[in-house]
Amino acid sequence: MKTIGILGTGIVGRTVGKKLAQLGYNVTLGSRSADNEKAKQWIADVGGTAKSGTFAEAARHADAVFVCTKGDGTVDAVKAAGDLSGKLVIDLTNPLDSSKGMPPPLISQYSNTHSLGEAVQAAVPNARVVKTLNIVNCEVMVDPKKSGGDPTMLLCGDDDGAKAEATNLLKEFGWNDVLDLGDITGARSMEAYVTLWVRVYMTTGNGYNAMKSIR
Amino acid sequence: MKTIGILGTGIVGRTVGKKLAQLGYNVTLGSRSADNEKAKQWIADVGGTAKSGTFAEAARHADAVFVCTKGDGTVDAVKAAGDLSGKLVIDLTNPLDSSKGMPPPLISQYSNTHSLGEAVQAAVPNARVVKTLNIVNCEVMVDPKKSGGDPTMLLCGDDDGAKAEATNLLKEFGWNDVLDLGDITGARSMEAYVTLWVRVYMTTGNGYNAMKSIR
What we know:
The structure is a homodimer of 215-residue chains.
Chain A (H helix, E strand, L loop, with lengths): L2 E5 L3 H12 L3 E6 L5 H10 L4 E4 H6 L3 E4 L6 H7 L7 E4 L24 H8 L4 E5 L5 H4 L10 E6 L2 H14 L3 E4 L6 H18 L5 E5 L1
Helix pairs in contact in A: 4-5
């Protein structure tokens, strides 16, 4: 695996994309329009082989696609990325409903008995979707030591090979403890956990909080 | 605080009640009917000043009431306990919908934008409700070392004094790290977390799993 597409030019996509570029991957940052200003600035910052393009351009030659879009735009972005058959699709998104103030609940349709992870897998049924990384802030995603400890990263998905590939990427980011929650429906609990993360952030002020599974 | 009422004769109520009796509290185990067979066996097991009675009898002289009922019977049980005004009410319950196989989702009406903790507080508005302990199995509740580590216990509620009293009880159980999530709406995230706990149990087989907040 050498070439990675990122969907989304927000802080998550830019941070994860930069880390992947630093690790030696050829990274294309994808957005709705090819002349995205944040993507241009990101290329200037990252240098090397970093490129930008539309969602479809970012995904076309990618071995793996990181989905880093806002929750409510995620399914559309994944569909706009073209044919993702066989590709590893790593879903980092959270279906937070930010229209209701803090703390945000989940977008109702993706809560409890459904999830955005499942919706992503359903949107690209021939892709191999793995949900992971959504449970911490993006700086901790690519450097778990920033949490101040050795936290656990959760992961789920329907394809065991895809989860093994994702685990290797997580290890490159510095995650020593990866916990597989089973099939993609595990995304329900992983996305719900984020409401707890937000609570801890609100009550402690620590945006680098994470959790260690004792098991 | 010397006298404690337990609502519920299931494994949670019996385990927590026994621990409280061992700590020197006068404990009454409450159930729907006064001649509950499990309560009689519990008294024989615990000895000392342990008693049983109806929900209302268990609560009448109690300084603190532990709510240990099944999710779908919780609000009725709390209402049946009589006047809980001013009392510390510790809600350990989880609104799991076990009708749909494993893993259980939350009962829909108590998910995402609502919770059983809030429903308990609304049912007894003059009581001082604290949600806690629901995030581990009952053996770990009263002996957190059984998890194999030094896990974090979460807690939330609208009354700071009640949370301080609950924290003292948690310390008597052995919890060294108690994290206050704020008002009772924090129960939304604490109850949703339990679906993650169940996932970890299903994939690792470890029913003593817990989590440590890194913050």
